[in-house]
Design goal:
The protein is mostly helical. It is built from 16 helices and no strands. Helix 1 crosses helix 7 and helix 2 packs antiparallel against helix 3. The two termini are 16 Å apart.
């Protein structure tokens, strides 16, 4: 039960922070899309996506590895931290070199080039921020991460909102959010060093070699994940104009924010899964099945709800100028659902030291996404990019589930998803016929029918109820 409460506390604390952050981000996104317009928002999305893809070069899995080493209560965690910081410095240099090469090869105009370089600085600060949060996760003290994350989001949104309100233009808007991002980094750094772990800068070549060997599969997985998710944005810049990127990028950025919740869940579970596997406790299998089922139960109705009511959601979030984003949102929500499930599957493989298998599944996903994008974007523009991402994420889920089943999980996909799928079918029929009514009323009725059917069919087990009660207690 202590582990239940630990995961519950960490998930609840981070979730509360992220709910606030997502609310800030949602209102910020609503303001940005309207203030910049589809073309300038497309430039912003392109710059953020290109810098975000290359940002993984500055991480290469070492953040996740640091969390894992601290969770394992390694005696040399401080020395590992020091060597990781040295590698981080080297990787950051490689990141900027890669960014310069990419920008010159892609031959963007001066306006976009300057924005891309500026976003490069932004994502590096974000990457350092995530390294500090890795320490908090390793000690399972997510309340500290939650606090600094909320501070970060508040300062970035506040500085960006002010720049847009003052009509400073796209370039100055990006500079403003860089300043907000940097200032919010300072408190987290001080807390991490004063309260938790101070790195020992004792450089050991053998240790760095082992770090790279263990982190490399995780880094490749992260790189392939990012490339697969953002390839559509970059490829759209070859075939279509910046407005098309904006129409595709608006729902993509909205759903990327939603991915924070499964990332929170997985981040809270990774130290627990790691310690359970290290101590050879059989309960890791029960934990894993329960977590996958709860994600399916939570994710399916959200996907159905957004699919059926996407026209109203797009109008509320982005405005009437983004009506072209409706079909994109309908496609991307299902890609997001498959990605959510894949996150948990990939994290359990990391916990049981099978991270090499993630490279295969994520590699298949990325190759299929890029190839299908090259074929479909010239034909269907932004909708083609969304279709490609959906195909890739579906294959990612299938291959990840296959590897997990072969190495760890002994159950069928239907066993985990059967009753939630049936419940969603009933809910979708109700929502379809009520889609012209009030959005809030339709939502509440749909949720009531969905969970009512799950309750009648006893899909939520006693163990699930115990976990949920523990979460409520901790909150």
């Amino acid at each position: 039960m202590n582990r239940v409460r630990t995961v519950a506390k960490n998930t609840i604390v981070r979730s509360i922070s992220q709910v606030l952050c997502i609310l800030l981000s949602a209102f910020f996104l609503m303001y940005i899309t309207r203030k910049l317009g589809s073309a300038d928002f497309g430039k912003y999305t392109l710059a953020f996506s290109l810098a975000g893809v290359l940002m993984v070069v500055s991480e290469m899995g070492i953040h996740t590895l640091l969390t894992k080493k601290i969770a394992q209560k390694s005696d040399d965690a401080a020395i590992v931290y020091g060597n990781i910081l040295f590698l981080k410095f080297v990787f950051t240099i490689l990141f900027f070199i890669s960014l310069v090469i990419a920008v010159n090869l892609l031959n963007y105009n001066n306006d976009v080039t300057n924005i891309v370089y500026s976003m490069g600085a932004f994502v590096i600060i974000t990457s350092i921020f995530d390294l500090i949060n890795s320490v908090f996760r390793g000690y399972e003290k997510m309340e500290y991460e939650a606090a600094v994350m909320f501070l970060n989001r508040s300062m970035v949104v506040g500085s960006g909102f002010y720049a847009l309100y003052m009509d400073w233009g796209l370039q100055n808007f990006v500079i403003a959010i860089i300043i907000g991002n940097f200032l919010s980094l300072i408190p987290g750094t001080v807390i991490s060093l004063k309260i938790f772990l101070k790195p020992k800068m004792i450089i050991r070549l053998n240790m760095m070699k082992n770090i790279l060997k263990e982190a490399f599969p995780i880094g490749i997985m992260l790189l392939l994940t990012t490339v697969g998710f953002k390839a559509g944005v970059v490829l759209l810049s070859f075939f279509k104009d910046y407005s098309a990127i904006g129409w595709y990028g608006a729902p993509l950025k909205f759903l990327e924010s939603a991915l924070v919740f499964p990332t929170i869940f997985a981040g809270a579970l990774l130290p627990v899964f790691t310690s359970l596997y290290k101590s050879k406790e059989d309960s890791i299998l029960l934990w894993f099945k329960s977590c996958v089922r709860l994600l399916v139960i939570a994710g399916l109705p959200v996907a159905v709800f957004i699919t059926i009511l996407s026209d109203k959601i797009v109008l509320i979030l982005f405005g009437s100028n983004y009506s072209n984003s409706i079909v994109v949102l309908q496609l991307l929500i299902w890609a997001t659902l498959f990605n959510v499930l894949s996150i948990i599957l990939s994290h359990i493989l990391i916990a049981i030291d099978k991270q090499q298998l993630n490279m295969i599944s994520y590699g298949i996903c990325t190759i299929v996404t890029i190839v299908s994008s090259i074929v479909l974007i010239p034909l269907f523009s932004y909708n083609g990019a969304a279709i490609s991402l959906l195909i890739g994420q579906f294959l990612l889920f299938i291959t990840s589930f296959y590897f997990t089943k072969q190495t760890f999980l002994r159950t069928s996909l239907l066993h985990l998803t059967g009753k939630p799928l049936a419940s969603c079918l009933i809910m979708s029929i109700l929502l379809y016929y009520m889609r012209e009514y009030n959005l809030l009323v339709s939502s509440l009725l749909g949720i009531g029918v969905y969970f009512g059917f799950l309750f009648i069919t006893k899909e939520l087990t006693d163990k699930d109820i115990v976990i949920l009660r523990s979460i409520v207690k901790q909150s």
